[in-house]
Amino acid sequence: MTTFESKTNLRPGTSLGVTLRPPIAPPVTQPETLMKTVQAAVLETDQESLRRVARPDAGVAYQPRTLLALLTYCYAREIYGSEAVEDVMRRDVSFRELCHNEFPDARLIRRFRRENREPLRSCLISALRFMAMKKLDAGVVTGVKEAHLIEEANRRIIMAMFIDNMELDSD
C-alpha cells in the first residue's frame, strides 16, 4: 500500500515526546482608574521632552511631570480654565499636603500648557482612550476610533486656551 503522508505525520493520539504550546505572555494589566491611567501615561513620557516653567529647585507642584499629570487629569474631566485648575489644587486636601501648600498659579499653568502642548496632547489621548474603553465596556458606545480621540484631545486643549483668553479679556 502506498501512502503520500510523510513519516513525521502522526495520527491523533501518537506523540513525539515534544509538547508544543503557544508562548505564554505575561498578563497585560490595564489601569483601573483614570488617575492611574494618567500616571502611567505621564511616566511613559520622556522627561527630556518636557520643558520646565519653574526653577529646577521649585517644589513638587512645579515639576513638569506633576503639572503634566494635573493638566491631563483636569482636561480629561473637562476642567479647562487655568484658574479652575488652580482652584482644584487649592481645594484638594491631598494635593495641598503633597505639595506643602505650594502650587502654581493660573499664569504658570498657561505657560506650561503652551510649552508642553505635545506631551500634554499625548497623555490626554491616553486618558480619553481609557474613558472611551470604559464606555465601550459598559455598552454606552459601540466603537472607538483613534482619529476621534486625537481630535477630542486637540479640541480640549483649544477649549482650555479659549477659556483662558476669555478670562484674561474680562480682567
Characterize the structure shown.
- The protein has 171 residues and is mostly helical.
- It contains seven helices and no strands.
- Mean pLDDT is 85; it is low at 1-23.
Keywords:
single chain, 171 residues, mainly alpha, globular
Helices and strands, with pairings:
Blueprint: H1 34-44, H2 64-76, H3 82-91, H4 93-98, H5 106-115, H6 117-137, H7 146-170
Helix pairs in contact: 1-2, 1-6, 2-6, 3-5, 6-7
Summarize this entry quickly.
It is globular and about 45 Å long. The chain contains seven helices and no strands.
Number of helices: 7
Mean pLDDT: 85
H/E order of the elements? Answer: HHHHHHH
The number of E-state strands comes to 0
Ranges where pLDDT stays below 50 over 5 or more residues in a row are 1-23
> Shape, please?
globular
Taking Cα atoms only, what radius of gyration do you get, to the nearest Å?
Answer: 25 Å
Distance between the termini: 98 Å
